[in-house]
Amino acid sequence: MQITITGSGTSQGVPVIGCDCKVCKSKNKKDKRLRCSVHIYYKGKSIVIDTGPDFRQQMLDNDVKSLDAVLFTHEHKDHVAGLDDVRPFNFSQKKPIDIYCTDQVFQALKREFHYIFDPKFQYPGIPKINRHSLKKNQNITIDGIDIEPIEVMHYKLPVLGFKIDGFAYITDAKTIEDSQRKKLKNLDILVINALRIKEHMSHFNLEEAIDLINELKPKKAILTHISHFMGIHQEVQKKLPPNIYLAYDGLKINLT
Fold it and tell me: Which residues partner with 145 through β-bridges?
């Protein structure tokens, strides 16, 4: 399994428009963060988790030439706004793209991208989508790849993370109930959100993320969904425990 962090930033990305802080003005590429997303290549299949506003650029930056499925965590714009840009994959692969999402997310997609799903607006140039249902306690299989949804809470909004063998991806979490935490123990790789140093109402901050990682005991943990309030990448990384790393755009993780 090859996992690529295609975007490690929060909803505004980094740099933030109009901000002159030292993170936003940093010349280090690891301080430039597109909106949060990940690409997984496994068993010959190409899967993306979330299509945020930067989806097109992420696919180009990482030379992704095929797409078999999209998994959606939740309906916020920084995770769905790039759905229209699956079209090149429709054209090159000559088939619809399979998307997997909850009913709540699907209702939002139908509002935001009405022309994709409304029969009145059908014409050859629009994205072609096959929608599959996701539920928090119902595993799915994509061409022999078993995927287990993990429900977390983003303040009051349910969000799905995903577990594939020894890898799990959790974004936009503030709380995780015990029944879901049990599914995340003793992983090889855990990618989990850590927004900033100070506490936040709907995201783990750095301390909360580290505490959870220590409880779950993965072999390696990667922190993502990072804002400019976290600080300079190089400075923060020096303070982290040996098995915990800050994500950066383009980070590749190989899991055998």
Answer: 142
Place of tokens 């072609």: 128
Q: Sheet holding 97-101: strands in order across? A: 129-133, 97-101, 69-71, 45-49, 37-42, 2-7, 252-254
CATH of the domain at 241: 3.60.15.10
pLDDT tens readout for residues 201-256: 999 999 999 999 999 999 999 999 999 999 999 999 999 999 999 999 999 999 98
Phi, psi of 155 (to 5 degrees): 60, -105
Count up the domains in the chain and report the number.
Answer: 1
pLDDT (tens digit, 9 = 90+) per residue, 155-187? 999 999 999 999 999 999 999 999 999 999 999
CA distance 256 to 253: 10
Q: Specify the pTM.
A: 0.97
